[in-house]
Each structure stands twice: as C-alpha cells, then as structure tokens.
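Thread title: Can someone regenerate the structure for this chain?

I was given the following input by a collaborator and told the matching structure tokens would be attached. They weren't. Posting the sequence so someone can regenerate them.
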Amino acid sequence: MRTIRALLSTEATKLKHTATLWLSAIVPVTMLTLLFIGLLNEYFQHRGLGMQQSALELWNNTLRGPWTMWTLVAAPILIAVEATGLASPEHAGKHWTQLFSLPIPRWSVFAAKAIMCALLTGASSLIFTAGAIALGLMQSELYHLDMASGIPWGLVLRIAARSYLASWCAIAIQTWLSLRFSGFAIPIGTALAGTLFTGAASQFRITGWYPWSMMADSLPWGWSHVPAPAIISPALCLLVGLLAGWQMSRREVV
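Best answer:
Regenerated them for you:
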C-alpha cells in the first residue's frame, strides 16, 4: 500500500502539468452548459406551458435526459481521454524502461494509473450530479414549479453511485490500452467504437455485460437486463486488472 500511495502522489504531481485534470471539469461543465441552453430554448418556445406532474415525476423527467447523454456518450469518451492523458508523460518521455527498473511491482503502476483515472471520473461525476440538480432547480424557477421542496436525494444518490460503479470496467480497460499503446489513436478509437456499438449491444441484450453501456444500463431508466452493472463492472474491473498486471510483468518494455 505504501508503494501505491507513493505512486498516487507522483501521479497527482504530474497531473498539475497536463490538461487532463482540467478536462475532468471542462467536459461536464460544457455538457451542462449545452443542456442549460437547451432548457432556455425550450422555455422561450413554450413559455407559460404548465406541467401538471408530481415533484418526483418532474425530477425523473428532468434527470433522465442529461444522465442518459452523460452515461452513453460523454463519460465513456472522457474516461478514455483521462486514461490516455495519465499515460502520456511516460510514453512521451519514453520513461518505461527507467520506471520498470525501479524496485516496485509492475502491477502497481497499472493500479496507480487506474485509481487516479477512477478519482478523476468520480470528480467529473460529482460535478455533473451537482449541475443536473441545478438544472432541475432552474427549470422549477422558469416554469414556476415546486421542485425545490421535493428533491429526490435518494434517487440522485442512486443514479450517481450506480453509474460510477458501472464505469469501473471501462476505466480498467482504457487504462490498460493507454499503457499498452502510445498515442491517442488506439485508446480513444476503442472508446469511440465501443460507444457506437452500444446500440447493437442493446439489441443483443448484453448491455449489462458490455463495458461501454454499463453506465447507461445502471440508470433507473436503463434497458431490461439480468446482471446489475454496478456489481458486474467492479468484478470485471478486478479481472481486467489482474490480466493487465500479468501482461505488464511479462513485458521487457511497454
């Protein structure tokens, strides 16, 4: 554990000199800004239109669209960018030989990168969660609704926690790809291809097992499935981590 803590401290120091940390905040804020613009556009087109629904129904409708977009499109790509950004200093400086000559287990390098990517993803999720609640309150003010007194904190916590746990498998895979291949092409290309294949995954009813659809599948409005992604994803994350650690320990140079 002391080695992991030291490596995490090193990763945190390196983050200060990259754009990866800023992207973890910029991406959710940008998406929230676009959603806010869409809310204003909807308001000006239907000004004065009433919504005769309960507070819980209003919050369900308000949260569904933003969280679906976040888990289906933004979060999978952001995870790929974060993982690639965390591995880029070693690839750019060709430091792998020097790093692997240190008296530390090679799997700990993967573990530190994956944990840091998970922390960045968690921070992005928290920003988006707070922004989604703010959008709901703005909608309440615009349409003179009583949503502020009925914020479903349990639903919000369940959405945020389950979607975050469901992202762990994608985090492990993208971290492995980013360490294995230099550059952005293969890791981000894999994330784009995986995201595009999500529609096909829903047709084959494998969204609960498919890494890039697990986050969306974990939502209360997700697809019908047998496994729970919030449980399956951490288990698959551990399996991918074991395979990545074994593969890294067998290579001369990454």
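The first helix runs from residue 2 to 15.
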